[in-house]
Amino acid sequence: MRGENVLEKKRKQVKVKGISKKVISDALREFYRDKLEPKFEKIDKRFDKVDEQFEGVDKRFDQVDERFEGVDKRFEGIENQLEQVDKRFEQIDRRFDLNDVRFENIEKKLEEHDGKFRDILNHFDQIYQRFERLETEYYSIAAALDRIEKKLDEESEKRKILEREVFDLKERVQILQVRIEEIENRLNFSK
Length: 191
Fold this sequence. Notes:
Elements: H1 2-17, H2 21-67, H3 72-112, H4 117-151, H5 156-190
Helix pairs in contact: 2-3, 2-5, 3-4, 4-5
């Protein structure tokens, strides 16, 4: 309900001030280019770094397998968990690709249909929901990492590195949330 009231106020403000399709389209393009696209690229790079670290962990598992054949089944379980985490990262990457396509479609619709402004606001709500889902997935990943840490007491240095990465991810999520709020404030201020 709160979101609907805010959307309705934004629509009324746009109609009163008479903002043209071109101004809205240009603002959305600039917002995407300057704010979202760089963040998506930074997040992709961070995911690549995390993938590299997971690959390093896989190599360590291979070394441990050579020394301790009796514990092979335990390490297979850990490897399966890492593959699941890797699949989650691939899903997140695909979602970012889908978001890129959606933004392009939004720009085309703004040029074609003046009455589609309400749909654009709905797309923003969907993006916020995706960020919430990403945060939920982040906590799932953090829980999986905790389980891995318990099984890898001998790998304390690696565990410290992973903990720092998780902390960096939390900071980045917080930074993203602050920037989203700033953008909303700027959108509200400009309307």
